Amino acid sequence: MPYFDAASAVPLHPVARQALLASLDEGWADPARLHREGRRARMLLDAAREAAAEAVGCRPDELTFTTSGTRAVHTGVAGALAGRRRAGRHLIVSTVEHSCVLHAAESHEADGGEVTRVEVDRGGRVDASAFAAALREDTALACLQSANHEVGTLQPVAEVAGACREAGVPLLVDAAQSLAWGPVEGPWSLLAASAHKWGGPAGVGLLAVRKGVRFSAPGPSDDRESGRAPGFEDVPAVVAAAASLRAVRAEAAAEAARLRELTERIRARVPQLVADVEVVGDPVRRLPGTVTFSCLYVDGEALLHELDRTGFSVSSGSSCTSSTLVPSHVLKAMGVLSEGNVRVSLPPGTTEADVDAFLDALPDAVSRVRAQLGAPAGGDEAVAVPPAGTGSGTSEQEAVLVVDTLGRRCPIPVIELAKVIGDVPVGGLVRVLSDDEAARLDVPAWCEMRGQEYLGESPWPEGGTAYLVRRER
Amino acid sequence: MPYFDAASAVPLHPVARQALLASLDEGWADPARLHREGRRARMLLDAAREAAAEAVGCRPDELTFTTSGTRAVHTGVAGALAGRRRAGRHLIVSTVEHSCVLHAAESHEADGGEVTRVEVDRGGRVDASAFAAALREDTALACLQSANHEVGTLQPVAEVAGACREAGVPLLVDAAQSLAWGPVEGPWSLLAASAHKWGGPAGVGLLAVRKGVRFSAPGPSDDRESGRAPGFEDVPAVVAAAASLRAVRAEAAAEAARLRELTERIRARVPQLVADVEVVGDPVRRLPGTVTFSCLYVDGEALLHELDRTGFSVSSGSSCTSSTLVPSHVLKAMGVLSEGNVRVSLPPGTTEADVDAFLDALPDAVSRVRAQLGAPAGGDEAVAVPPAGTGSGTSEQEAVLVVDTLGRRCPIPVIELAKVIGDVPVGGLVRVLSDDEAARLDVPAWCEMRGQEYLGESPWPEGGTAYLVRRER
Fold first, then answer.
1. Cα A25 from chain centroid?
2. Does A233 lie at the interface with B, CB-CB under 8 angstroms?
């Protein structure tokens, strides 16, 4: 049963398992204690720190073990902002950062700080010079991920780090998605990562803070982890995390090349196998194992369940957690279709046969979901009605076909739009009423994919939003 | 090699080990995901929450898994204070709380809040009515440990919780030391605990927040753990922690009775075997496995190393971590001798033979440390010189013997005092100069133990402090 959600978590690496078992016996005691059990735990912790620091490319005394990547980011952002408070309270992030970075930014705003969110292109990539242009006199900190977690796009971290260095602003790199593949290049100042992304156990994050970076850890602290991560250290988990990082790094180059071929195959084949699909993310500058696509007229969660029944575990940006139905902020920032979104992220060791089986299963899974939703088939929904004579301009006199999907979840609004677009003449207008947030992204994305003109949105008096579309073909 | 530092951490319980291994395979995925691996992790997490909630005595939806007991306390204190900000900003703690509670209180003060620290008796116990008397109109939160981590004294938690309930103030109970033995009685509002104290893995804490308690989690949060503990859940560790808690609870009554006999033996025998020892902590209302004593003329760290060489791992409140030499705030608050402090905390399963071997080894270990320090032998240091006629009153005319121990660490000040007390007549004065913080505790404690009169301290013009003692016998 292939598991294709490596960007979320991967199973424990065999090396990590071995290290964990050994250090459950040897490293359970308090490393702050002076007795032999404590000293043994301390030695294991120190050795793990050296190994992890080498993989990160920093000094051991610059590296703190935290209890998760999220905690590393929260502490890193708050600590750097507090340490640089004299410089100012301006924070820069990209719009496609992991939610833990965005939550930290919101927290900073709630506390009276100011945040600039740097936009990305349609591939999800930040422009290094646009990012640099956001740097100000009062910028205390900038944050940029090394690679995007939903679409796999690599960010120009080295260039941005260089610009930040020149401006005297520390850059925090969220390296959660890339650290397994190699160290982060460029003169970054802080770095955060998460062990369960590289086959380490959950419960271990890394926070590196370069010497010389002003840093003041938030909240109450203790003597542990240089005062940056209070609470009893989970030494066995830390040892396993460090061992796993070394192990995956040893295999990284070969495995990256292999996975890249497999994701390239998915990128190329999916649009051939399934109608009305948009593959998203930068086609070249991307992580080896991650590929993301969106399918018109498909409910992402339904497709995820359909694939799960067929034996494939993937993730969907259409409903990225089990507790929320808000479409992915990443797809939104990129301006691409969010409906029917599927992220395939291959764990190391994924076989060609698994990928081929997925490509075999996908078209039927999509068809089943589309059929359940009553979606138009074949993508030719707009050819039945001949173009009307001279329709142009959006005067108030023009007739507008209204499609009311208030109270109905995406992708219904787009499905209903597709069903009626053929009922208006070329040049004619359709107004889609929807109160599903995802429609804001999906109606324009549908227009771009189908060659129709999107004219904009306006609040609808009876609640929800009206999206106006002109038939172009 | 007996390990007697259970109050700090115990090895993984066999049941926890088994649960951990099983759930490393079954529970590594993200429990927020909808695919089968995610759902499996979610089921394990839910089951662990039910088991742990039952042991705590709360509803599953009141229980959050945190990454350590310290984190549970920090989040609990900050969250309750923020949630009750309208009531006021007054916080009550006892003086003998774990440092994580005191750090949270200091953080609150630094943020402009007010803290009342309720004192304890010489046994380390809070008086429930004194605690209740500290409650005010503007009290937002009160914190009391269920049992003290250094001396094992049980606190009157149920009575205090009742008084808090009456006053409409939530009580947070740090139950780290007692949860293995049973649920916390009384109408507490918040409870914190730590899994590695009961044979669970490190990296798991518990925070229970009763329904109806106003709570606003500090810092950035996410959807995990009811928004109270951001970051990817370590499901295998949580499962192991819950399994271990059930297992130790099943054995708790029998094991408590057994360990209580063993610590009772230590309490009784140590003062017979070693001269000038003070057993500290409440003799009756105490944890089953913890016993603490202090030895005059002994450096706690040296004794700890001496015992470690002999094969016994204990902890010392004289130097409670490897990174600090400040004497324990607990012993200080109790007003008992801090020098030569040893905490023996027996893990479940400790044998009678281990305890007897310890009692065999202790006298020699103490003697060796005392000999190294040149301490007076036998406790009869003051009998050589006959009493002087009529000495009484501290007039300026009286001759004062000055003992200068500036720059020398405890227990040297007390050792030098003991050496010269026989050189002054009964009624005569000795002034001890010291710049070691521990002397403030140890000189009065020595006087009480030796039947001499402690007259007080004053700043010494050349630095440090002068402690004045009158020979009484």
1. 37
2. yes
